[in-house]
TrEMBL record:
Record lineage: Eukaryota, Metazoa, Chordata, Craniata, Vertebrata
Subcellular location: Cytoplasm
Name recorded for this polypeptide: Prostaglandin reductase 1
SUPFAM superfamilies in UniProt: GroES-like (SSF50129), NAD(P)-binding Rossmann-fold domains (SSF51735)
GO cellular component, as recorded: cytoplasm
InterPro entries with a match to the protein in the record: ADH-like_C (IPR013149), ADH_N_2 (IPR041694), ER (IPR020843), GroES-like_sf (IPR011032), MDR_fam (IPR045010), NAD(P)-bd_dom_sf (IPR036291), PTGR1 (IPR014190)
Length: 329
């Protein structure tokens, strides 16, 4: 008999999530039926989407949503061998039973030298978000200037590096000087700390006096309201995330986008990475290749211990992560 530890949403978040909003429970798992597998989480992901999705899709007492890299402990399913590693979407659980549906085996070409946790970051959902957001939504072209915010995070750091691979000038902003130094190290042309500049307007003008062709927006709110005025004519804005608004109890008000959108003839498109699930393999293959060639660098903020899931999640929302926030069990 295996005892699984699970984190449940005890109380819907009001404003910024607090440790007391979560509860750690134990569940006895039954023995396996034919077709089933027993898995243990090795790495779990904490992501910004969990904040708005919990509000929309979860009720109090539900296991927190989320993905993990898990090892198959035992298998009664011929499609999966014990010892293999998969990416699963089973929530904040230390152990779980699956019938195999929705599990993605790590590519057989996954090199031993590469942390398997990258399948939750640069070579996983956040990397794919950068890939499809830039190539399919922004439709970035060589020679253009790309702006990305939350640039030192899981998605943003890949956006900047893919834009460089694609022959663009890249401007990024992040919330600490260490993050800004990291952005320069991984090849961003310009980077600034949005928390310490005296004027966002001036910082955006200084970084690219001619303006921006593409804006990969991870943040929303005030930053985006200012950045839209720095777009070039026919610029494209990929609305990826709005983390500056996820913890608001009262919705933020304008300024509104219509006037700059009309006069600059902009295109602004929201997107969800899962719309390209049918091209997941293509994206993963490209990202893995660039990582192995050293063209895409990565950093992970690893928190040790399943019991620290809420702390890692809250820390990521506060901006304590450089690169992808991961929990190692
Ligand atoms: N549309 C889609 O399919 C997907 C969308 N997303 C979205 O992309 C964005 C980035 O996600 P991800 O890369 O995983 O997360 P990150 O790794 O970038 O972590 C979140 C970062 O957001 C920044 N942040 C937090 N609060 C604020 C704020 N008030 N203003 C500005 N920045 C803030 C912090 O960095 P800093 O120190 O720089 O402030 C923090 O480190 C999120 O908005 C997320 O929801 C992610 C995946 C898929
Ligand atoms: C199986 C995990 C699905 C994750 C989808 C993430 C979409 C993110 C939206 C905003 O953050």
């Amino acid at each position: 008999m295996v005892t699984a530890k699970v984190w449940v949403l005890k109380k819907h978040f009001q404003g910024f999530p607090k440790p007391s909003d979560f509860d750690l429970k134990k569940i006895e798992l039954p023995s396996l039926q034919d077709g089933e597998l027993l898995l243990e989480s090795v790495f779990l992901s904490v992501d910004p989407y969990m904040r708005p999705y919990s509000q929309r899709d979860m009720k109090e007492g539900d296991v927190m949503i989320g993905t993990q890299v898990a090892r198959i402990v035992e298998s009664k399913n011929p499609a999966f061998a014990a010892g293999a590693f998969v990416v699963a979407n089973s929530g904040w659980r230390s152990h779980f039973i699956s019938d195999g549906k929705g599990l993605h085996l790590l590519p057989s070409s996954w090199p031993e030298s590469l942390p398997k946790s990258l399948a939750l970051g640069t070579v996983g959902m956040p990397g794919l978000t950068a890939y499809f957001g830039l190539f399919e939504v922004c439709k970035m072209k060589p020679g253009e200037t790309v702006l990305v915010n939350a640039a030192a995070g899981a998605v943003g750091s890949v956006v900047g590096q893919l834009a460089k691979i694609g022959g663009c000038k890249v401007v990024g902003c992040a919330g600490s000087d260490d993050k800004v130094a990291y952005l320069k190290k991984i090849g961003f042309d310009e980077a600034f700390n949005y928390k310490t500049v005296t004027s966002l307007d001036e910082a955006l003008s200084k970084a690219s006096p001619d303006g921006y062709d593409c804006f990969f927006d991870n943040v929303g709110g005030e930053f985006s309201s200012i950045a839209i005025n720095h777009m070039k004519k026919h610029g494209r804005i990929a609305v990826c995330g709005a983390i500056s608004q996820y913890n608001d109890s009262v919705p933020q008000k304008g300024p509104y986008v219509q006037i700059p959108m009309i006069f600059k003839e902009l295109r602004m498109e929201g997107f969800i990475v899962t719309s390209w699930n049918n091209r997941r393999e293509e994206g993963q293959k490209a990202l893995l290749k660039w990582v192995l060639e050293g063209k895409v660098k990565f950093h992970e903020q690893v928190t040790e211990g399943f019991e620290n899931m809420p702390a890692a999640f809250i820390g990521m929302l506060r901006g304590e992560n450089l690169g992808k926030a991961i929990v190692k069990v």
